[in-house]
Structure formats: C-alpha cells, structure tokens
Design goal:
This protein is mainly α. It has helices at 7-38, 41-100, 109-125. The protein has 3 helices and no strands. It starts with 6 loop residues before the first helix and ends with a helix.
C-alpha cells in the first residue's frame, strides 16, 4: 500500500487483489474437477495432488491476507490514537505556555499559584 492510503483503503486494496483472483482459482478448480472426471483412474491421483496443492496455497494466501489485514487495522488504530493524544498534548502545552508567560502582578499572585497547581495536575494526568 502507498503511504498516503488509509487503513481501510489498504485493506480494501489487498482484499480486492485476492478477490480478483478468486474467479481464476474457481475456474482452475472446476477445470481440475472436469479433468478428474475424464482421466483414467491411475492419473486421478496426480490431478488430485495438484488440486490439493492449489487449495492449500489458496487457503494459505487467504489466511495470510487476513492476518495482515488485522495487523494493518490495529496499526492504524494505534496511529490514530497517537495522533489524537499528540494534538491534545500540543494544545495543552500551548495553553500552559500562554499561562506561564502572562505578566504577573502582586494582586494576581494567588490566582496564578492556583492556576499553576491546575497545570501541574494536568501534567501529571498526561504522564
């Protein structure tokens, strides 16, 4: 998948790539079954072996795709959570910096101390 895709787009693209091959797989399987019906008994074992290998490969590809889809969705979920937390922290830092850099006079000292205590408790929540 390309870097600018969302998780859903990557999942859809990957699933779609395998789904496009489903018809080809079904056609090959049907042709193999037709061949089984037409060949001699001593040749059927070889055809069955090839069909079994094909089915196992298909099942393996589907399983692998599902595992990767789940990992991709999990990764995107973590990335979105990180992004949200990053934005929240950036806003908090901006607000904290604004409060810290406010001019201070003696009459506002008590209010300033109370706001600093709120800032410290907010910082502890983000640890």
């Amino acid at each position: 998948c390309k870097d600018d895709y969302t998780g859903e787009q990557c999942t859809t693209q990957s699933t779609g790539a395998l789904s496009d091959k489903q018809q080809h797989y079904d056609t090959l399987t049907a042709r193999g079954q037709d061949l089984l019906d037409k060949c001699r008994e001593n040749e059927q074992q070889g055809v069955n072996a090839v069909l079994l290998v094909l089915a196992e490969a298909w099942d393996g590809a589907e399983g692998s795709l599902e595992e990767k889809r789940m990992k991709l969705e999990d990764g995107f979920q973590h990335a979105h959570q990180f992004d949200k937390q990053h934005r929240d922290l950036a806003i908090w830092i901006r607000d904290a910096e604004a409060q810290i850099t406010e001019p201070m006079d003696d009459t506002d000292l008590q209010q300033r101390v109370e706001r600093q205590q709120v800032l410290v408790s907010g910082l502890k929540e983000h640890e």
